[in-house]
């Protein structure tokens, strides 16, 4: 292994390979899509909550007996 280039001699591959080639790559598109789905879900929940508040009947005020 040479420290300057970061290459190693791997028995399954012919010749030298880089360490970066052996590591799994991050799927940024998947992460971005998951964030978009979460945002969309949160937005829908807020909208439902807003509609429920709007459609809810206003609570009647309790009638208090008149004081003399």
Question: Can you give a write-up of this model?
Answer:
This protein has helices at residues 19-22, 28-55, and strands at residues 7-9, 16-18. The N and C termini lie far apart (97 Å). The longest helix has 28 residues, at 28-55. β1 (7-9) and β2 form a beta hairpin. The protein is mainly alpha-helical and 68 residues long. The model has no long low-confidence stretch (mean pLDDT 78). It is built from two helices and two strands. Helices cover 47% and strands 9% of the residues. Strands 1-2 form a two-stranded antiparallel sheet.
How are the SSEs ordered, and which strands pair?
Elements (H helix, E strand, L loop, with lengths): L6 E3 L6 E3 H4 L5 H28 L13
Antiparallel strand pairs: 1-2
Summarize the structure.
The chain has 68 residues and is mainly alpha-helical. The chain has 2 helices and 2 strands; from the N terminus they run E-E-H-H. The longest helix has 28 residues, at 28-55.
């Amino acid at each position: 292994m040479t420290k300057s280039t970061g290459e190693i001699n791997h028995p399954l591959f012919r010749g030298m390979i880089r360490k970066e080639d052996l590591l799994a790559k991050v799927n940024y598109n998947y992460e971005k899509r998951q964030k978009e789905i979460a945002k969309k879900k949160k937005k829908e929940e807020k909208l439902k909550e807003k509609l429920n508040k709007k459609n809810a009947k206003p609570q009647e005020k309790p009638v208090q007996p008149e004081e003399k």
